[in-house]
Every structure is written in C-alpha cells, then in structure tokens.
Amino acid sequence: MLQIKNLHVKLEEEDKQILKGVDLTVKAGEVHAIMGPNGSGKSTLSYVLSGRDGYEVTEGSATLDGEELLEMEPEERAAAGLFLAFQYPVEIPGVGNMTFLRTAVNAQRKARGQEEMSAGDFLKEVRAKAKTLKIDAEMLKRPVNVGFSGGEKKRNEILQMAMLEPKMCILDETDSGLDVDAMKLVSEGVNALRDAGRAFLVITHYQRLLDHIKPDVVHIMANGRIIKTGGPELALEVENNGYADLLAEVQ
Ligand code: ADP
Ligand code: MG
Ligand code: MG
Asked: What is a single Pfam family found in this protein's UniProt entry (predicted)?
C-alpha cells in the first residue's frame, strides 16, 4: 500500500539533509510503528508525506497503491486515501467542528467522484462515531480544536479519521500529552478502524502506546534512516534498554 524508497529530504531554507535514505513498505491491513530518539527525522517523514512546505525531496519516492504521492498536492493525497494526525493539531477559530468535518468529508467524496452525503446521513454517522470516542455534542458544535484539551484534540482527530475512512493513516506522536484514559480511547478508536483494506503507521516515542495499538512491525529510526526493523519485541527492547545499544550496533 505505502512504499517508500530511498527517500532523501533536505530543508528548503538550509543545506541540511534530514532524511538520508528511508526505505519502508507497509501492506494493506498492517500496523507499523516507527520509534526513535528525538531529532531522528520521524516527524519530517510524516510532514513530507503530507506535502508540507519547507522540505525538498532530493532523491527517492513514496507511492500509495502505486501512485506517486510526492508529486501530488496535499488535498490530492487526502483524496487518494492518506490521512495524517499530527503531534499538534491546528485550531480553527470561527469554524464549527461539525461544519469542518462535513466540508472535509464532502470534499473528499467529490474528489473520489462520489455524491455528497446528505445532511441527515452525515449527522447520523458523525453522532454515532463521536459517541464511541466519548466526544459530546457540545464539542461537535465548538470551533475546531479551540479550547480543547490535549486529549479532546486527539479524540477529535480520530473522529476526523473515522469520518474520512482513509486507506493509509499516519499518526505522529498521538500519545504525547495524553493521560492513560485518553490514550486508551484514542487506541480503541484506532483499533476499531483496523481493517484488511487499511494500514497504519504509528510514530511514537514511547512503548506504552504500543501496548494498546499492537503493531505488526516495528522500525527504529535514527539519524534520518531506519536502522532496524522487527516485530513487537523490538519496542520492548527499546523500552527496557533505550536506544544506545541499537545505535551502537549500526556504528
Ligand atoms: P523527530 O520527529 O524524530 O523528533 P524531526 O523530524 O522533528 O525529528 O527532526 C529531525 C531533525 O531535523 C532535527 O534535527 C530537527 O532539528 C531538524 N529539523 C526539522 N525540521 C526543521 C526545520 N523546519 N528547521 C530546522 N531544523 C529542522
Ligand atoms: Mg521530536
Ligand atoms: Mg517528532
């Protein structure tokens, strides 16, 4: 589903290489985790996949079901089925959460050549999905993320994800700033979306999220590269021993 080959990325403004040859293949139905020390390039990878400005791809490719993502506009990537949840969700004052969701869902349906969802159907679906994520009606009416707690923002992102039904979901540090209960809710939301036709890339600094979202494959990223790939046991190894041993192995 997602295939990243030899991806090299530098900052546009500075002569600083951040990703130095990332290779990664995620198949439909799989959950992959990327762990790694701070500054290793994890967020840069998710930003580049989302099409954020400020980064220059100097080599390599990233395809979603065979289509080159790196040549698409951000909204084309979303229409192709890519969804990214970020460490710091944006606040949108003046735009109601429900209106935002409906606009996003219908824009995506349009891009996929589908008809708009009727107001009634949308309302039914958003209410049902919000309920499972313990998002109350009040939160649906408020401006997007404005005044939301960290946990509420994360749950709101999972709601966006649930409504957009993407193929490939990338979550960057979704656990940071979450208390245990909020982390469980977010994990349950993600687990409920696990499906043979969908894949996840979960970027996390801590092993604890992976107790709730069980990954099939774990990658360790350091200094702009994936230095080791393994099963869930790799996350436990990091939890117990830190990154030092793994870093020493590759030097
Ligand atoms: P991680 O998410 O693994 O902590 P990042 O992708 O955020 O790592 O950062 C990787 C490296 O690139 C760090 O050294 C960071 O300081 C640098 N970096 C990323 N984006 C920028 C930027 N816009 N300006 C300057 N340095 C950046
Ligand atoms: Mg960081
Ligand atoms: Mg990061």
From this structure: ABC_tran
Global pTM reads 0.90
Q: Which residues contact 124 (CB under 8 A, 6 or more apart)?
A: none
d(CA 168, CA 218): 17
Q: What is the ipTM of this complex?
A: 0.94
- Mutating to test ligand 1, I would choose from 18, 53, 219, 227 the residue with most ligand atoms within 8 A of its C-beta, which is 18
**Helix axes of 180-193 and 150-164: crossing angle, nearest 10 degrees:** 0
pLDDT at 251 over 70: no
Q: Is the C-alpha dihedral spanning 121, 124, 128, 129 positive or negative?
A: positive
Residue minimizing CA distance to atom 19 of ligand 1? 44
> How far does the centroid of ligand 3 lie from the alpha carbon of residue 68, in Å?
24
